[in-house]
Write a structure and sequence with these properties.
Elements: H1 2-5, H2 29-43, H3 48-60, H4 64-81, H5 84-100, H6 104-120, H7 124-140, H8 144-161, H9 164-176, H10 182-195, H11 198-209, H12 219-235, H13 238-247, H14 258-275, H15 279-295, H16 299-315, H17 319-335, H18 339-356, H19 359-375, H20 379-395, H21 399-411, H22 419-438, H23 442-453, H24 460-477, H25 480-496, H26 500-517, H27 520-534, H28 543-559, H29 569-583, H30 587-601, H31 604-607, H32 613-629, H33 633-648, H34 655-672, H35 676-693, H36 696-715, H37 724-742, H38 748-764, H39 768-782, H40 791-811, H41 814-829, H42 836-852, H43 856-872, H44 876-892, H45 896-913, H46 919-935, H47 938-955, H48 958-974, H49 978-995, H50 998-1014, H51 1018-1035, H52 1038-1054, H53 1058-1074, H54 1080-1094, H55 1098-1114, H56 1118-1134, H57 1138-1162, H58 1168-1190, H59 1194-1202
Helix pairs in contact: 3-4, 4-5, 5-6, 5-7, 6-7, 7-8, 7-9, 8-9, 9-10, 9-11, 10-11, 11-12, 12-13, 13-15, 14-15, 15-16, 15-17, 16-17, 17-18, 18-19, 19-20, 20-21, 21-23, 22-23, 23-24, 23-25, 24-25, 25-26, 26-27, 27-28, 28-29, 29-30, 30-32, 32-33, 33-34, 34-35, 34-36, 35-37, 36-37, 36-38, ...
């Protein structure tokens, strides 16, 4: 909306009142164009005053850029002529332009220059107007004291000079700043009506609108805009009439009849335009009414308005708006699914454009048809229209449009297509290269490569090849910066593939080119990309190197005053430097850069462009986090309060959520100090302020932020929670206070939100009866008529039913739990707005309840009953998913024939509805192959794994291809078909290398290393692992590199080269001691213990095992403790101390069985977790049984092994 860029920001604009001279509202576009052409000829010899007047007139008919340019030309002429009066006037007009277009830093400077000239030539009228403009500037900046001083100065000068127009302006401005200023406003309006023009009155009404700019439902807001709109229409000022027209629909904002209110008002404006023979205003109103009706999904009204607009535009020969009307009519019919009618309108638009012989309009017509066919996934037709448009644009010298059209061709099939569509685009561009070369059109080759480069995930080898080919052409025949652009894309490609050295090389070469060309914006851009390579958010490769690049970028940005469309770039650089210092725990430097960030936000450069309060608040929060990390909670709390204070000054729509979130951070710190009273006081202060506002939506936004903290606290591990019981109590009191403020008549949506939070808080305290009561109240509110049609309400109502079911399940009231889950399912079925994932989640929960009761038939019926519903709704994806759920249930029962049948039904459905998107078939094929293998049908399993590979290749996505090769290779290895396994793993490696994806290359090297190790090809295994190690180190992945050290050590240990094995194991341990991870450190101790046990150095083995056990206990890792106890048992068995061995084996088995009991509760009827447990610890059970047999205790041994057998499932 233009409003949000100008008027809605609160700008009370007072543009110069100049007569509408030669341009009349009832002139046609053709007549206006002829007049402008004639004027352009006349202006070549025009005086400064004539050019000044013409600039204002052009602006008011909507030619804003041309008007501003002519004003600047007039300023130069006035200065050349020494006409200080004219210079002062045009400076004032330029300040108005600047204010209106949110360039307020220039507004003040220009107005002050005008004021100085007016004072020098003693022109009180201009001086009064300049002071009024300065008042407008400060009003916009929300600096009321300075605004009032300026308006007062304006008033005094105007009154002294008898300038009634200036006096009226000043009085209106002052009335805005005075809560009791209604009488002052009336005085000002009366003076403007007497001494000014309708245009002066229009701006006065906009000034008076200022206090209501954030009150979209206030009747006064809409009334004031209506008055302003009417006055601009009366003044014949089309430019500002259209700007207010663009804004008026925002008021009233939340009223159900908002569209009807706006429609009625604009219909009145339309009748006046028709009665006064003002076709341009009539056309503007028809187009806006059509667009508004379209947005309100009132298709019939939209079609009627656009049909009228089309007729009128054709009558007055306004071809651009005739085309716009045809395009909109095409869009409406397309949304309705009437594609033939839609295509007809797009074709009419193209025919009309061709009749005008206007190349720009013809290009637009062709492009609109291209987009139409693209959306229908007819990429051949789309490409044909885009190509015609491209050739026209290129031949017309419209390079930017030509580039954009080439990008359109390159993106065809990006969404909804895939590998095949990309290859078609590549073939298309390849075919064009000879013609591009013959025409010397290197730019088109570069642009086509850039378009393709963004689709690297669809076909990396082909994309990289085309980029390299284009780069070679650009190097030999193109310009240096064309070379640099392609180098940037290659750098990005290599970075995404974790090939950091290659990426850095390409970026550095591009950087050198941009530096030589002194393209400082691109220099800064590439430096930040280089910094990004080394300073990744999650795993910095070289933090100091990243900081150096960021600092270079910052220095160049400041030294060369780089102007960029991305105004946030400089503050982002500062933020990244601060973040990296913070990660290095260099808090002093981090604080310094965060403070620089705040200083930059508060500078004129940023404050003049947007409201920076929220951005400053975010930085203050990050500073608070710095002090939290240092344990200085008191200073952290102080910074959070500063952040809240700045957030309160913001006009961002989510400011109340942000405030609540920051208060939540204070709460966490206060609870650490066991200061519950302070917590409640923190919230009470904010709630009191919100209560005074009386804004239910603001209160709801605030509690949305509270809920985010509540959910974050609840989802944290117990060790990370701050006084969870106290926190839950605070939440209960807080929600109760919010509901008390809202009262029973409060906004229903806000009440629903607070009840949700209160219910969660009671659940957290395990006060289930209170939670049930709250959720039942929530259901009652959901049924209120004003919420029935809202999508979010239907989903929230569903969640409330689910919450009640969940509580009954926790209480053991299974019948009630089933009842509410079934009600939830029925509700979701009957509401098309509810997405299928929500319905599936409810079905899953219902299945769990039935399985807990041991009712397998009911669990199966949950999904089978939905199959008919899915067919009725024509949702094949959902239908296929249901079949898969049934298959998994039968598989859990070991009914492999039934499971296989349902998986095959699922595959058939997926094959029918996924001609282009075959991704989901891959998972189903894997499940089928596994079942076939479990049944012993190995020939069928092999065929299915091969079918999976074929489908993956058709999809063309690397992850699917290598995953399929891995499955196939593992199957061969399992069948001891070693040549086939090695061949498959080698193909896995070749594919990964072709795509240039090191993550998958190392995966293939792992597979090859394991296979060669198993085959006792030790040298080959070590070679594979060494290659893997080199890649991981180049990627900066120290953990994976450490795991590879372990693998190499194992190969040397298999060869009995114990010295080499020990070296690698010690390096493995050293890595995890420097960078501890939950499992890695434990495993390193375990590996060394096992190593020393093998070479019979039992004391050393015991020492390492003990260190591993200590780590497992400290980290509360149950699986690691089982493994440790088993290792102790094996060590004592090796030493012949069988009593100790038996004792530790018993402890290990007891710990494992405790895990099994938890798994059976958590994963009822899902055997996979228990199967994984057996596979993990089967050796411990087998070893214990062996020892028991050695002691002559076969019954006990058999009992141990019986624990590995799954119970029968009825």
């Amino acid at each position: 909306m233009v409003w949000q860029q100008g008027l809605a920001a609160g700008v009370a604009v007072l543009l110069t009142s100049a007569p509408m001279g030669w341009v009349k509202a009832n002139k046609t576009p053709t007549e206006i164009a002829e007049a402008i052409a004639e004027q352009n000829v006349q202006l070549e010899s025009a005086s400064a005053a004539e050019r000044h007047q013409a600039a204002l007139e052009r602006y008011r008919m909507g030619e804003k850029s041309a008007g501003r340019a002519q004003l600047e030309q007039a300023l130069e002429l006035y200065r050349a002529e020494g006409d200080r009066l004219g210079e002062a006037m045009v400076l004032l007009d330029l300040s108005e332009f600047s204010l209106f277009h949110r360039r307020s830093n220039k507004t003040l400077t220009l107005a002050q220059e005008s004021l100085r000239l007016a004072q020098a030539i003693e022109n009180s009228e201009i001086a009064a107007h300049a002071w009024a403009r300065i008042g407008d500037y400060y009003l916009w900046k929300a600096e009321p004291s300075e605004a009032q001083d300026a308006y007062q100065q304006s008033l005094e000068i105007a009154q002294a000079a008898g300038d009634r127009l200036g006096e009226g302006r000043a009085l209106v401005g002052l009335s805005i700043l005075d809560p009791l200023g209604e009488h002052t406003a009336q005085q000002g309006l009366a003076l403007l009506a007497e001494a000014g023009t309708p245009r002066d009155e229009a701006f006065a009404w906009l000034n008076l609108f200022f206090p209501y700019r954030d009150q979209r439902d206030a009747p006064e807001a809409f009334d004031l805009l209506k008055l302003s709109l009417a006055k601009f229409q009366a003044a014949g000022d089309r430019a500002l009439f259209r700007d207010v027209l663009e804004s008026i629909s925002w008021f009233p904002y939340d009223r159900e009849d908002g569209w009807q209110i706006v429609q009625t008002e604009l219909e009145e404006r339309l009748a006046i335009a028709q009665a006064t023979n003002a076709p341009l205003f009539e056309l503007d109103l028809l187009l806006y009414l059509g667009a508004s009706a379209q947005e309100e999904e009132d298709a019939a009204a939209a079609i009627a308005y656009f049909q009228q607009a089309l007729s009128l535009a054709q009558e007055i020969q306004d071809f651009e708006n005739a085309l716009f009307s045809l395009w909109q009519l095409g869009q409406i019919y397309k949304v309705q699914g009437n594609l033939a009618e839609a295509r007809s309108y797009y074709e009419q638009a193209l025919a009309l454009a061709q009749e005008t012989n206007d190349v720009q309009l013809i290009i637009s017509g062709l492009r609109s048809l291209g987009r139409f066919y693209k959306e229908q996934e007819d990429f051949t037709q789309a490409r044909d229209y885009y190509e015609q448009a491209f050739l026209l644009a290129r031949d017309a010298g419209e390079r930017e449009r030509a580039n954009s059209l080439l990008s359109d061709i390159g993106r065809l099939g990006w969404f909804g297509g895939g590998h095949r569509e990309l290859l078609e685009a590549l073939a298309y561009f390849q075919a064009w290269i000879p013609e591009f070369l013959a025409a010397g059109d290197i730019e088109s080759i570069v642009v086509s490569a850039e378009a393709i480069a963004w689709r690297v995930h669809d076909a990396a080898p082909e994309v990289r090849k085309y980029l390299q080919q284009s780069l070679e052409i650009a190097r030999s025949q193109g310009q240096p910066e064309q070379v640099a652009r392609l180098l940037e894309h290659l750098g990005r490609l290599h970075r995404e593939q974790s090939q950091f050295e290659f990426a850095a090389n390409h970026y550095n070469e591009a950087l050198a080119i941009y530096q030589k060309a002194q393209n400082w914006e691109k220099v800064v851009d590439v430096l930040t990309r280089l910094a990004g390579i080394y300073g990744d958010h999650f795993a910095p490769l070289n933090a100091q190197q990243a900081i150096d690049f960021y600092q270079q970028a910052l220095r160049i940005h400041q030294e060369h005053d780089v102007q960029s469309s991305d105004l946030s770039r400089e503050v982002n650089i500062l933020e990244n430097i601060a973040r990296l210092y913070q990660q290095q725990e260099n808090f002093t430097e981090a604080l310094r850069y965060y403070q620089q960030q705040i200083e930059l936000y508060e500078s004129e450069k940023y404050e003049s462009v947007w409201d920076v309060s929220s951005s400053v608040a975010s930085v203050l929060s990050r500073i608070a986090e710095l002090y939290v990390a240092q344990g200085n909670d008191e200073t952290a709390i102080d910074y959070y309060y500063q952040a809240i204070e700045r957030e309160q000054q913001s006009d961002e729509s989510d400011r109340h959520r942000s405030i609540a979130y920051k208060l939540g951070k204070i709460v966490e710190l206060e609870l650490k100090r066991d200061n519950l009273e302070a917590v409640l006081n923190v919230y009470e202060k904010q709630l009191t302020a919100l209560q005074a506002q009386g804004d239910d939506q603001a209160l709801a936004d605030f509690f949305e932020g509270v809920q985010s903290i509540q959910q974050q606290q609840n989802s944290s591990p117990p060790s990370a929670q701050s006084q969870p019981e106290q926190f839950a109590k605070a939440m209960v009191k807080l929600y109760q206070r919010g509901l008390e403020i809202l009262g029973p008549e409060g906004e229903p949506k806000a009440i629903v939100q607070l009840l949700s939070g209160l219910g969660e808080a009671y659940e957290q305290q395990e006060q289930y009866e209170l939670a049930l009561d709250v959720y039942q109240r929530k259901l009652t509110v959901h049924k209120q008529p004003e919420l029935q049609e809202e999508w979010h309400n239907q989903r929230d109502l569903s969640h409330a039913l689910g919450n009640i079911a969940s509580i009954y399940r926790k209480q053991g009231n299974i019948e009630a739990a089933i009842e509410y889950r079934q009600r939830q399912v029925e509700h979701q079925r009957n509401n098309p707005q509810v997405i299928s994932t929500d319905l599936m989640y409810s079905l899953d929960q219902l299945r769990f309840i039935h399985l807990e009761r041991g009712d397998f038939a009911a669990a199966i019926a949950v999904y089978q009953n939905e199959l008919e519903f899915a067919q009725t709704r024509e949702t094949p994806y959902f239908y296929a998913e249901l079949l898969g759920k049934i298959a998994h249930l039968y598989r859990s029962r070991r009914d492999y024939d039934q499971a296989l049948d349902y998986f095959q039904q699922q595959l058939a459905v997926q094959q029918n509805y996924e001609e282009q998107n075959q991704h989901s078939q891959l998972y189903t094929l894997t499940e089928i192959a596994k079942l076939q293998a479990e049944k012993g049908d190995l020939t069928a399993a092999l065929a299915t794994f091969q079918q999976r590979l074929t489908v993956a290749r058709q999809v063309g996505q690397l992850s699917f291809i290598v995953q399929s090769l891995r499955h196939l290779g593992n199957f061969y290895l399992w069948q001891e078909q070693y040549p086939e396994a090695l061949s498959t793993y080698e193909e896995h490696q070749r594919v990964a290398q072709d795509w240039g994806e090191p993550r998958y290359v190392v995966q293939s090297l792992t597979l090859l290393g394991l296979a060669h190790h198993q085959l006792k090809n030790y040298d080959q295994a070590i070679d594979n692992y060494q290659q893997q190690l080199d890649i991981f180190r180049a990627m900066g992945d120290e953990y994976s590199a450490a795991d590879t050290l372990r693998s190499i050590g194992e190969v040397y240990q298999s060869q009995r080269d114990y010295a080499q094995a020990l070296k690698y194991y010690q390096d493995y341990l050293a890595t995890y001691q420097q960078q501890p991870s939950n499992w890695g450190l434990f495993d390193a101790f375990s590996v060394l213990g096992s190593f020393y046990q093998e070479i019979a150095e039992y004391d050393q083995a015991l020492s390492y095992y003990q260190q591993g056990y200590d780590v497992a206990q400290a980290q509360e890792r149950d699986y690691a403790q089982v493994r440790s106890l088993g290792q102790f048992a094996g060590l004592f068995e090796a030493q012949g101390d069988l009593p100790k061995a038996v004792d530790y084996y018993r402890q290990a088995i007891a710990a494992s069985e405790a895990i099994r009991a938890e798994l059976r509760v958590k994963y009822t009827y899902d055997p996979t977790p228990e199967q994984n447990l057996n596979e993990r610890f089967e050796d411990i059970y087998q070893n214990f049984a062996r020892v028991l047999r050695q002691q002559g205790r076969p019954e006990e041994a058999e009992a141990v092994l019986e624990l590995l057998v799954f119970p029968e499932i009825e």
